[in-house]
Design brief:
By secondary structure, this protein is mainly β. The protein is 0% helix and 50% strand.
Length: 113
């Protein structure tokens, strides 16, 4: 059994920052290198950031230069530092295990103009 718990969402004005956390619990093979996805109302869920097999980070084009993902392996936690937030970043943000088919419950991010 694997559990992913996101936190850190909230409401901010455009230009603000938030840091999301995803803490993973359970089967060790599933609890590292988690990816971030987001889903805005009426839109499909999209990839935001994650880790390539060589450990490098990957981002969707719309967040490059603004978002940074990192992980603390000792805590089985992945972070998403979001800076220069825009209204179009408003969405529910989910983390997903890269190696197993588990998702967190999501954390809401709302950016007002």
């Amino acid at each position: 059994q694997v559990q992913l718990v996101e936190s850190g969402g909230g409401s901010v004005q455009a230009g603000g920052s938030l840091r999301l956390s995803c803490a993973a619990f359970g089967f060790a093979a599933c609890t590292h290198d988690m990816s971030w996805y987001r889903q805005a109302p009426g839109k499909e869920r999209e990839f935001v950031s994650g880790f390539a097999n060589d450990g490098s980070t990957r981002y969707t084009n719309s967040v490059k230069g603004r978002f940074t993902t990192s992980q603390d392996n000792a805590k089985n936690t992945v972070y998403l530092q979001m800076n220069s937030l825009k209204p179009e970043d408003t969405a529910m943000y989910y983390c997903k295990s890269k190696w197993c088919d588990y998702w967190g419950q999501g954390t809401q991010v709302t950016v007002s103009s």
